[in-house]
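Listing S7. Sequence submitted for prediction.
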Amino acid sequence: MTLSGGLHEKPDAPASKQKVERMAQSAPTCLVVEDAAFDRMIMERKLAAYAQPLQVRFVSTLAEARNCLSEMPISIIFLDNSLPDGKGANFALELAAHRNWMKIPVVMVSDWPSPFMPAKAKAANVVAIWTKTEFTALTVAEVLKSRGLTA
């Protein structure tokens, strides 16, 4: 299925492992770590509205995120805080301590932030904390541009 903004969805993939394939070699690769199917659908629509090509990989657990990070280069991570196998804020600290992943920008996207999330996010060099309603094509464009991932 073709989506606007230069994205192509792999229709046979389950929602938790849905891949969006890149149209241009220089397209940034976004990892979205979100366990709620409805929120993944909304985020996919927002990413499809983005005007430039992106490669996007959706996973629903931190374990799947680790596997994805080990398998392919990731340009940016959009990370929910409440996941079945842990807290995104703790995972952001893990990323910051990992020599291969420490430079990947992370945006926390959560409607249920813990009281400790901002402090952990600051310690992990998270570039932004958004509510899920703040995840829009415009905010994605702004963060990608601010991190030098698009023109």
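Caption to Listing S7: primary sequence and predicted structure tokens for the chain studied. The chain is about 30% helix and 20% strand. Residues 1-24 have pLDDT under 50 and may be disordered.
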